[in-house]
Amino acid sequence: MTQPRDILDRAADLRTDPDVIERLRSQPETRVVVVRDGRLRVQSGAVLRVDAGTVGDAEWALLGRDADGAALLLASVPVSADSIDTAPDETWLGLRDAGGRLSAYETELFVTAIALAGWLVDAPHCSSCGTRMQLQQAGWARRCEPCRRDHFPRTDPAVIVAVESPDGQKLLLGANANWRGRMYSCFAGFVEAGESLEGTVHREIAEEAGVRLSSLRYLGSQAWPYPRSLMIGFRAVAIDEQEAVADGAEIIDVRWFTRDEIGTALAGDGPVGLPGESSIARSLIRHWHEESKCGALSERSESK
User: If DSSP codes are grouped into helix, strand and coil, which group holds residue 136?
Assistant: First the structure.
């Protein structure tokens, strides 16, 4: 079965071949995506692919098949690597820089490369005994021989929530202390052990913004490899907008914004800064802003 053209074919069927990386590196039609310090090269709106022979010292993995069926490898190179080209440092882009200018397919390729490269570099040793592990499954697993345990790239689930007023006419956003009041965004937090996604939504919003919620609705998700998150996006309605108050630690301010104010902010004209184009936070904010009044979430059937 072929993959849709906007979804990366990860070629799981090739991962059981222990020699697949070396075999593909020797084939001239193979393409390589190079990651350096969480950054990739982007050229003409696409992730730059290079020939395997141009890459020096690297950690290698199989990314999959490109949209036309060509094999795609990942090469995670040291920060000081100069074996790719002599392009200046500023042409190596992170997801926040490049995400807004890439297609859905190129964005998935970009994020997958960053996430897998980060794991290859950061987790070479067994967490139980400290032994350096052997790569398996074409770079998607590691094996600790003394412990006889397999290790895989880790993904940490986190929720992110756009909270609207009971009448559907305002959106609640918060300013994180790290941003020093320069930007407002949706509320987010990691799922704790033994906690459901819905439970995390209620807990995080109560902790950060003081409001109780109804009408939770899942909208979408986004892989966010900083360092290994999966952001799971929700919309919800505040039961009482007067309850909103910042926790004063992580969130230094919360504000209700009208649709007009959000529209102005999305256009870059204030009253506050919003998250960048590549983030699911901005997508949630834009989704709320563009939704017509007659389709407001608070007017729909509730699933508490």
Answer: strand
Length of the chain (residues): 304
Residue type, 276: G
Q: What angle do CA 72, 74, 80 make, to 5 degrees?
A: 145
Q: What is the SS3 assignment for 255?
A: strand
239/6 Cα distance (integer angstroms): 39
Q: Report the distance separating Cα 115 and Cα 92, nearest Å.
A: 16
Contact 256, 172 (CB under 8 A): yes
CA distance 277 to 283: 8
Q: Which helix (H) or strand (E) holds 283?
A: helix 280-290
Q: For 109-159, what is each residue's pLDDT tens digit?
A: 999 999 999 999 999 999 999 999 999 999 999 999 999 999 999 999 999
Answer whether 221's CB lies under 8 Å from 157's CB: no
pTM: 0.85
pLDDT (tens digit, 9 = 90+) per residue, 170-193?
999 999 998 877 899 999 999 999
Of the candidates 162, 167, 163, the one whose C-alpha atom is nearest the C-alpha of residue 298 is 167
3-state secondary structure of 165: coil
